[in-house]
Task: structure prediction
Amino acid sequence: MNYISNGEREESPAALVKRLNLPFNDLLLLTRALTHRSFINEHPAALEDNERLEFLGDAVLDFVAGAWLYNHFPEMDEGELTRMRSALVCTEQLAEFARIIDLGAAMRLGNGEEQAGGRQRDVLLCATFEALIGALYLQNDINIVQGFFHAMIENVGEQFLLRSDLQDPKSRLQEWSQGHKLGIPQYVILQASGPDHDRRFEIEVRINGKVYGHGVGHNKQAATRLAAQETLNIIEKSES
Result:
């Protein structure tokens, strides 16, 4: 019988399957997904850790997160979709998903990692969650993974999308400007240069006649975004 540092019994793979209603017939595969290399170091009889499944799960998560964002935000451009996907599958967010389903209780850790608080470490929770996704994909198919992960995204979706660091800087700047009754920001092209295959745009932001930030990019959209972000940075400094 194994106990974790808080005195509670480590959750078995079978118990995890039952609690989360996971479609697993191969409990050995799930066990591998839950096994950290520190456990292998202390239990030579154990066959394999979860690092290969972690690798697979990372790739699967990139796809399912991207598909969810693509379908839910039809007007969002590629750059913004990429940024949102990165935020959805970053270490901290995946660790939070792992905490939501209490995955830490089922992780198989070596005693050293256990005593070091491994069940609460973001990097281990993230890795185990990725391995779980990898195993879920191998046991079933991409549709099952999508159903599982998309439900988790939608469960935290509102809070996630309200994070200020994920909002488009142009939208944030317009909210600030209108909130201060200064009208809508104007984006003025100061210069457009270079050949067609390597254009360079310089754009400045004007709010109520006052010049704020500048942005330079290879297209108008990128330059505008950078100008808006620089303006937000200027405003933040002036208000702090």
Observations:
- The two ends are 55 Å apart (CA to CA).
- The CA atoms of residues 34 and 48 lie 10 Å apart.
- The first helix runs from residue 13 to 20.
